[in-house]
Structures are given as C-alpha cells and as structure tokens.
Amino acid sequence: MIMGGGKRALFFAGIVLGLSGFAGGAVKELPLPDVPAEMKAPGERAAYIMRHFWDGMDWGDTTMTRNEAFLEQNAVNFFSLFPHADSLAVSAAVDTLLVRGSADSVAVEILSGLAGQYLYERESPVWNEAGYEIMAREMLACAALPPEERLRIEARLEGLAKNRPGISDSWHATAPAARSMKPSGGRISACLCFTTLTATTATILSGNSRPTAGYRRR
C-alpha cells in the first residue's frame, strides 16, 4: 500500500507512541546482551549490543522469522542503535544479521522492506540515509535477497547517490538526534518521539543499567 507523506508521518508517529493497532499486548522483543563491564565508551557498547542483538533469534523458527510484527519491533530497536556506533561497527552487525537470516529468504525480504521503511523514509523516527546505505549494500551481497527486492534497493541507492556524496565517518549527521521533524500543515511532529528515544538510548549506552529496547509496541 502506498501512503502519502502525511499518512506516513502519522503511521511512524503511531509506531513510536505505541498507538499501532495490534491487539493482544506488546510484541515480544529479543533479550539484549549484557555488555561487559569493561566496555565504557558509548560507541563501543553500541557496537557490542548491535553485534549480539540477534543472538536470541532462532532463524529456523518460522513463528519468529515470518512474524512481521515481531521482526518490525526488533528491527526498529536494532536500527535505533545505528547512530551510536561508527559505520564499520554497523556494517559488521548487519553482516552478522544477514549471515544468520539468510537461512530464511522470506525473513530477509521482510527485513529489507523494514530497512527501506524506517531508515530510508524521511518521515521515519529513525530515518538515517547513511545507515540505510550500509544496510542496503549488505543486503545486495546476500544471496537470499529476492530479485524484486534487489531492484528496489538498487533504485533507492541510485537516488541517494544523486543527493549526497556517500558514507564517511561523519555519517551520524543523518541520525535522528541530529535533526528534528517540524510540523508542516497537518503533519505530526516526531520531536517528542526523538526526545524519548534519545533519553532511552543514552541510558542503554551509559552503562548505568542493563540495555533495554528503545521502541515498544503496545
């Protein structure tokens, strides 16, 4: 289904605020790793969490790999960590995800769609073009990616290449914390959602508590 800009903004705001219409309680989230105590730097902690983010996922269990709500919740939690580590750490984490996930081509297709929906779409609360480019290039190297999705990714990358020069260590500039979404006409601002995410992620990476996921469906 193709949504206009205003409808997409409402949709993404609803995801973050827990207003999406899923009955039956919260969607299950993967248990996150305990970060070694000796890791103090936020970037190092973020890299560790991302690298082990999917450790609790059973890629042979189709009740998990084909569950779009489950994958969506956990993928968004995963994406929310991208701005807090360098591009090499993000690339390594995505590679780990796809090496495991390639056991189920349907799951790979779903994850690719979610990357486009949340990292590529500007209305998304975790919009991150450089993060999408990393994810997309790793996706293209995955043999399990369906041909139709491959063409879609290539078209998006072509569009990104026309708008900016590429990824560097300053790639954090496109991260949510570095920008704001201001209301325009009838569109909903996601500024409060970003504030909530930033505070939650700061706690995760500070070492003051065990990491918990950044977004939560209800």
Task: Describe the fold and architecture.
The protein has nine helices and no strands. The protein is mainly alpha-helical.
Give the tags:
single chain, mainly alpha
Short description:
This protein has helices at residues 5-17, 42-51, 62-65, 68-79, 87-101, 105-120, 129-140, 147-163, 191-206.
Q: Report the sheet with the most strands, covering strand number, pairing sense and barrel closure.
A: none
Measured as a percent range, the helix fraction is: 40-55%
What's the number of extended β-strand segments? 0
Total helices: the number is: 9
Which secondary-structure class do the elements indicate? mainly alpha
The CA-CA distance between the termini, in Å, is 23 Å
Mean of residue pLDDT? Answer: 75
Order of helices and strands: HHHHHHHHH
Beta-strand content = under 5%
**Computed CA radius of gyration, to the nearest angstrom:** 16 Å
Shape: globular
Low-confidence stretches: 1-24, 166-200, 211-215
